């Protein structure tokens, strides 16, 4: 039900990690995600530790889901000397093409412990339904 839109993004993410570069609004870093089906919904979980909910932007246009987030450096006072800085900063983005069988009008979003979780219900028209055949006339009835 979900499709990756850019097969080279994972390679870009690895190169950015190795080079230590941060994402920018014009070239954001990729955020890791998991996607799976749970009952009558698809669930997509994005890792965004240290990002406030105000810095997360979720959009759906037609069937393209776009999630953008920004992690800024923590406020430093004058007396602080940074010894180690490994946590990635900057802009993160991910686009996911959603299938027509998903109900993009009823997406639910939760953010807990640095994980953004989106629940996308499967559209009623995409759920399996029983088709019965009527009497001798051969009429068919579709039940939902």
Automatic annotation (TrEMBL):
InterPro entries listed in its UniProt record: A-crystallin/Hsp20_dom (IPR002068), HSP20-like_chaperone (IPR008978), Small_HSP (IPR031107)
Pfam families tied to this protein: HSP20
Residues in SHSP domain copies: 24-136
Gene3D superfamilies: 2.60.40.790
Family as reported in the entry's similarity comment: Belongs to the small heat shock protein (HSP20) family.
Protein name stated in the entry: Hsp20/alpha crystallin family protein
Organism in which the protein naturally occurs: Streptomyces noboritoensis
């Amino acid at each position: 039900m979900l499709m990756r839109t850019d097969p080279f993004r994972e390679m870009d993410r690895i190169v950015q990690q190795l080079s230590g570069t941060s994402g920018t609004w014009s070239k954001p870093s990729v955020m890791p995600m998991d996607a799976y089906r749970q009952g009558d919904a698809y669930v997509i979980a994005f890792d965004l530790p240290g990002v406030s909910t105000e810095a997360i932007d979720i959009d759906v246009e037609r069937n393209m889901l776009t999630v953008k987030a920004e992690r800024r450096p923590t406020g430093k006072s004058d007396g602080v000397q940074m010894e180690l800085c490994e946590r990635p900063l900057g802009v993160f983005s991910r686009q996911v093409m959603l299938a027509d069988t998903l109900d993009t009008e009823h997406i639910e979003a939760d953010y807990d412990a640095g994980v953004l979780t989106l629940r996308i219900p499967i559209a009623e028209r995409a759920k399996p339904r029983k088709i019965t055949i009527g009497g001798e006339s051969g009429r068919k009835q579709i039940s939902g």
